[in-house]
Amino acid sequence: MTTDALRERGDSLEDAFFRDVDRKLIGELQAKKEREQQLDELAAASGIVHRDVLGALLDAGVHGEALVAVGLVPLIEVAWADHSMDARERDAIMQAARDAGVTDGSAAAAVLSAWLDRRPGAELLEAWKGYAAALVAELDEEDAAAVRDDILGRARGVAEATGGFLGLVASVSREERQMLDELAAALGG
Predict the structure, then answer these.
(1) Phi, psi of 73 (to 5 degrees)
(2) Domain range annotation of the chain
(3) In terms of Cα–Cα distance, which of 44, 47, 60, 45 is closest to 129?
(4) Greatest CA separation for the chain
(5) Tens digits of per-residue pLDDT, 116-136?
(6) Least confident of 20-29, 62-71, 111-120
(7) I need a surface site. Which of 25, 112, 135, 159 has the fewest CB within 10 A?
């Protein structure tokens, strides 16, 4: 093999190497741009400006269209607090979802359906806590109290959905009370 042929093969290998590197860098840039667009969409839908909170929500699988489902996270967490989802709790959550505008076939309905069938991971609650703290921080005291009362009232409604037994047994389990306290703390209450 001549020196020129060897040099041509070397150049060809070098070109191939840099094409692969370029493709990888372009892919990384596209992924970063797509994530930034998703963060922007989520920011527009939620009103949250804190990128770390938005990132945690994205990492937990919450995207702009499904943001309405985020408002249902406290209800889901209360229902699953005792490690089971009662049919009455499910019904209460579905009614709250309809009241919030969740329609069949929407992204929010798909997310909610998954949460009703299987308890979400702890990262969802942590992402919601970040969301709640950021939301309350953006509001004045009166509006923050109204949001807190609304969210906790709906969550308490789910906890109470199972009822008691002839008024002799508390309708809200110890685990549900603990979750309600955890949610209240996240909302600054």
Answers:
(1) -55, -45
(2) 3-186
(3) 60
(4) 96
(5) 999 999 999 998 898 888 878
(6) 62-71
(7) 25
- The answer to whether residues 186 and 148 touch, using CB atoms and an 8 Å cutoff, is no
* C-beta contacts of 152-157 below 8 A and 24+ residues apart: 152/74, 152/180, 152/183, 152/184, 152/187, 152/189, 154/74, 154/75, 154/96, 155/74, 155/75, 155/77, 155/78, 155/179, 155/180, 155/183, 156/78, 156/180, 157/92, 157/96
Contact 148, 58 (CB under 8 A): no
- With b for 16 or more beta-carbon neighbours within 10 A and e for fewer, the 60-77 pattern comes to bebebebbbbbbbbbbbb
pTM: 0.65
User: How far, in Å, CA of 186 to CA of 189, rounded?
Assistant: 7
Of 73, 180, 80, the residue nearest 131 (C-alpha): 73
Amino acid at residue number 15: D
Q: What is the pLDDT of residues 25-49, one digit of tens each?
A: 777 888 888 888 888 877 766 656 6
Question: Locate tokens 């770390």: which residue?
Answer: 52
Tokens representing 9 are 């093969």
- Please name the residues in contact with 60: beta carbons below 8 A apart, sequence gap of 6 or more: 120, 121, 123, 124, 126, 127
Q: What is the DSSP string of 66-111?
A: GHHHHTTHHHHHHHHTTS---HHHHHHHHHHHHHTT--TTSHHHHH
- End-to-end CA distance of the chain: give it in Å, rounded: 79
